[in-house]
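Can anyone check this?
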Amino acid sequence: MEEDAGLVPYKDGMVEDETDKLEDPEFEMNCGPLVTENAIAPEQPCPRKEGGTDAKKMKPETLATDRLQASQLHRSLELLDQAFEEKELFLQKTREELCACRQRMDLLSKQQATVAEEVTRERTTSNMAAVGRLQATSRRLCLELEDERDLQARIMAVLQENESAMWHLEIKKGQLEDIRKSSCQRTEARDLCLRAHVAQQLCREEEASGRAERNRRLQIRKSLHMQRELGLKHQKLVEDAQKNHWVAVKFLKASLGRVRERERKQELESREHLQRRMEAVLALKNSITANRETLRKFQAWGRARKEQEGQQVQVEQQEVLAQGRDAFKHLFHQRRRQELEAQRRAFEEQQQLRKQEIVSRILQEGTKEGNCRKRQQPPAKATTPRMLRDRTWSYITAFCEGKAYPTATRHSPASEAAVQPMSLLMLTTSSESMQNVPRLASLEEETLAEPEILGLWSEEHRQYQVPKEDVDRKPVGETKMDKDILARMLARLRSGVVHKQVASGREFKGRPFNSKPERIHFKDFDVGKVYKKKITLINATYTINYCKLVGVEQHLRDFIRVDFDPPGPLSAGMSCEVLVTFKPMINQDLEGSISFLAQTGGFSVPLKCSTKKCSLSLDKELISFGSYMVGKTTSRTITLTNAGGLGTRFRFLPASKACKLDESQSALKPSSLYTYEDRSLYEGAVYDVSETLLEASTSSPLDTQSQKESEKSKEPEGVPAAGVMVTSPSEAQAQITLGEVTEGEIGPFSSIRVPVVFTPAVPGEVHAQFQVESKNPQCPTLYFRATGVAVDVPLWVPKPIVDLKICMYDRLYQDSVLVHTRSKVALRLRFEVCKELRGHLELLPETGYIQALASCSVQLKFLPRQSLPEDAGEYFDKDTRVLEAPMTIWVADQVSVASSQGIGLLHKAQSAQGWMGGGRLSRCSPEGRSKALEPHRSSGGLCLRGQDWECGLPHAQTKPVGFTVHAIVTTSDLELCPSALDFGYCTIYEAIRASISLCNHSLLPQEFGFVGLPKFVDIQPNDGFGTILPLETLQLQVLFQPTKAREYSFELVCKSKINRCFKLSCHAVGVHPPLELSHYQIKFAATALYDTSVALLYVTNSHLTMSPLPRVVPSGGPCPGGPTSFEFLPPKDAPITISPLVGTVLPGKRCLVRVAFQPTLPHKLVSQEALQTLSKESEAKPLQKDVATQRKDVRVQDQLGQAPTLQKQELEARADEYQAAQATLARTFQGRFDKFMVPCAVASGDVKDKRELEPLSFSPHNMLYLELWCPAVAPAVVVTSDRGKTVIDFGHIAVGHHSIKKVSLQNICLEDLAVDFSVLNPQGPFFLVNTPSRLRAGETRVLALSFSPHESVLAQERLEVVTKRGALPLTLLGTGVASLITCSLDGDVLDMGYVLARESISMGFKLQNDSLLPIKFSVQLDSLSGSRAPTQKELPQFLTTQPQRTDIVGTQNHSGQSVFSVTPVTGIMDPGRAQDFTVTFSPDHESLYFSDRLQVVLFEKKVSHQIQLKGAAREHMMFVEGGDPLDVPVESLTMIPASDTEHREEAEELKPVLLTLNYIQLNTDQPAPPAARELRVGCIRTTQPSLKKTVEFGLDGIAWLQHKGFSIEPSRGSVDRGQTKTISVSWAPPADFDPDQPLMVSTLLQLRGDVKESYKVIFVAHVVTAL
């Protein structure tokens, strides 16, 4: 228990030696929280001792910690208890298993002892077989005993471990007992505090509820007061509204009168106008007729004139040619003169027309002016009316002098009359003069204005003023209800405008018009300027559509104007233009849309207007300097780009020193508005700026400033440059610093380049982070990083990775590696390739020299071998095929050192580290100084030796320089699969196609081609040439067509572009088959669906003899042979029928074969259509049914949902939906073309000579193939009735009945068709009632069919509607059904039993309808039949000589009512259902011979069943039956008077019962069985109350009867109501019996029930000898 070890910390150095692990895998417990609790618990009292402010602050934290610790402690204790219980249960189970194991061991030991005893016993008897068996049993028992011992040992070990764990748990549980008690105490204290807190909270809530109740009552009083005030205000408003309504009604009546008068005048004018239009139309019609006649005359004259002109031209041409001139030139000049003359005449006519038009206008104006003067009235005063010119001049003069020009609001008729001449003058003036006087139009409008209602503009009329109370009311249309009403009205109006568009059976869904561009964006606008953009709307629907402008959104109407001229109907793909004008008034971003309405629905174009913003971005986030030597300096530039239209001030600084910009240096205006937009919005704008703009922006005044600052920086260091921010870099960023230009202004759409300087000082990697801040607060702070590596080596490779891309095996690849040095001395280099790759990689030269501060190039050669994966080892990844080869450049030593350089090195040696000899330099003489400068090679460095001293120089380069060669090595193999191709046997009349796959295992594309192909082989596609992509597999088709019957062996060679060959061996055998087909390809004509096209071909046997010897194949020509058989193997589910499929052709003969093509629709497609139809119907049904039916349909839909796809059996069960779907698809069928290849097997011998179980030996080598082309088209005539079903099912019709069905046929082609019908079976049940002979295009005719079955049989016939474009097959189905009913009675007799007279009893039976159609039935009783009257006149049967009783109708009731009745009498039995019948027996007197016959009649014609009804009635509750008959079944017609019961009992005679027993005497010695008879005593069940509920019976003289040989059992007994008891009587002749004389004895049988009855039982015994 590793986890349990942490429950309680061990004290006093207690250490747990080993951890206990539980065997139960379900035992898991986390005891970490308990350790925390135990560790903290002793320290809890400490915070309580502290006081003051610290204790108060720590109190909430301590309480929270206590609660957390308590919860964790409680959880740990629960886990410990649970672990203890589980461990205890586990121990109990383990002990039980141990006991069971010991019991098994005892049992095995006992068995082993027993077996040993048996072995000893058997061995003494020398039974070796038993001894062997017992020894095997002993060995098995020993093995089982050992297994049980092992199991016992394991169980004991587990038990000990678990007991040890149990002891640990008990110890820990005891240790935690104090903690448990304290936890319980704390829990009780916490519960007490919680109850107190709940009580306080309850008091506070009660007080709060009281306050809330008081506030509610106060609110109610306030609301009542407000309601009263609102009621008074509403009443006042109603009164004011009524007053205003009376005033409005007064003026409304006057206005309506004028409106009605105006409408009446307009109606009269419209009628007159309509009359004039009708007259004009009639006149136009007459004129058109006359003009047609005139036009015909002119056309005839024109034709004659043209002929005459043509003749004249020919004559002139001949004359000109006779004169020797150019006829063409003469004709051209003549035609030109005629054209000029025609133009002159046309111009003169046009001038004449214009003159006439001017004169007519002048006359018309004069006439109008005269009419106007006549209509003028004389003025009231003799004042000269002012002309329009005078009035205009007066207005201009008054305006210039600053006077107000008087304008009258009311005009007299005189003024109106004065204005009318001015209007005439206005008509004659030109548009140019009107533009000079713009105030005239407004002046005349003011003059002619008059009120709609007289007196409305008068000063006496006081205008209505809205009360102050109504000012606060919402205007009409602003309430929520008004808005909802307006929205509903708009939706209703738009629903009438928008229509669905369906083209070619597809409904258009989506955006009706596409906008180009998709969004209108006005970027970086200035307030006050005007911006315009054009968009193009393209019709994206299927057919013609319309477009209408709806408008822009409400908040954009003040800034956006849309100019759109509706173009009318637009075809699909056509476009129109929209002009959008934007005039900004505010500096704010705007977003919205422009709405349009099309015929198929509305759409909108998004609109966005964005202000100028500042968008700063950096071209990179990481600057990598690479590797540089310590002491060098390099720089990189980073570009800050402003993609927005607003400039700002920026500043670069290290990320650790963020400070604000100096606001005094900012040149931005405080009134400017700055906005920021995210970087993604203007990413594209950075690339739109041309290089010229960037160069211009970089050469801005900021650059000039930077140049000046750089000049100032050359001054002494003590004087800092003005305007430059001085920062002190930290130690981490001392090596990577910013340039001198770190702040400035950046303009719109410009960029600034800032240098970043890297000065490595200490070897190693250097990282620095910088940030860019801007003055614009909405621009975020930008960050970028700079990294570099400082190295102390002078040699480096600029390309540390040489990437050779993808290489192939056994191909040479070369590259050059450039090496640079920073050293000021020449170095000798050695280039080394790793040992594993020296056979594949090579660096040339292996050793070289590099000059000071120069570079050299090394040639890299890579020739990968096939053994590269094994040789390279870890450098090559076999899965990815990637090679990473490390290369090393070693620096051997320095080549030469100049004396001056050496002396300089010596002077610097005192301060350098890493010298050989401790870095100490001693004095030396001038003579020895030159000697000291001699170079001396040392291990990796340069030493200068002298006579008296030795000093060491630092090594030139102590570590090598490495670079890596990367390459992806791939193979150039092309694989042909299969490697060998066997075409098998192919006849010379056909070609075999085989598929091969060409796989490219390389990672590079390769060009390939099959070369040197033989003539009988072809490879497709592209004749076997092409390009295969990496790791691609191409499928190629190889066609083999033999020309002769021989064996072929050849190879196909595939060459790649690198001249690698891949071969494919092929083998085939050419065969000359013994049979030939007259046609190997059949092209059927276009066949309608479910129609049949037939083609004929011949199978020919070209051999000449009848020899049955086998033929040798292949052969070069026809060889002699006997009869040859064939068999066609059509593909499965193909609409092809071949007959005969199997046949035999004799030598020199041929066999005719019929091939039929009948196209059908695929079953899967029809099933899908039927399923869609069913789903649509199931969705439409709930909308048309009530609630109850909807619930039923929901259950059906749930069942359909559980089975998303109907199976084939379900669709066949739904044959109606399947046929309807089939007809629907046939109407919309677009045509189909299929190709089928039908093999024909050929075998030797005759089919007739072979046995039935012996198949023919068909040779696969002589196989022939027939190719069929099968085009299918839609039918010309379709069935439109019953959802297009071509199967007319009459259903189940009873035999002898008939049914008529009508079928509608429609001609769906574009031409008339003559219709003919196939002949039906004249003896069959189907009959064609009418035969239409012709169907016009699009016409529908009705065809009537009749079905009259004569027998119970399933009838089916095929009727074809034949036209010249195909035949439509109709399948006629019908089932003649005979009525089949089964009865539940075992026989034909229904015995009702005994019943008391004047009571009734009922019994039932069932009739089952086993037929498939409903049956109409009726039930008849013979006693109620009218045919019974003649039979009643005959003699009774007991008087006739008939030996048996044949009368069916027996005793009837005296009351005249039928003793038997049955219900129901008539009805209909559904198919498969059963009908219950109830027969009631109601006798009115006592008799034993009540009988009747019940007949079941079907369809009022056929008697199906006859049931004999029997019953007996008694006056008392007891009866006896079983004796021989002693009376006749016909009772007397006289009534027996009912007498007193007592007198009747006294006068009652004994009733005789005769029992005849025949003892059969056998001829053998064995005794014969006794003769036996039975008597039955019964008690009738009755509903009448009675004193006795049982009947007692007894026989007298039993002893005497036994003496005579009779045995009666039982002789006495009782019978309950409704029960019957049998008295068995047997007789065996006694010893003194005379067999020749019959024995006759009698006894008395007494019955005691409600009355006492006595029967005299007479026994007659005979001995009969067996034959």
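Reply from J.R.: I decoded it. The CA atoms of residues 202 and 208 lie 10 Å apart.
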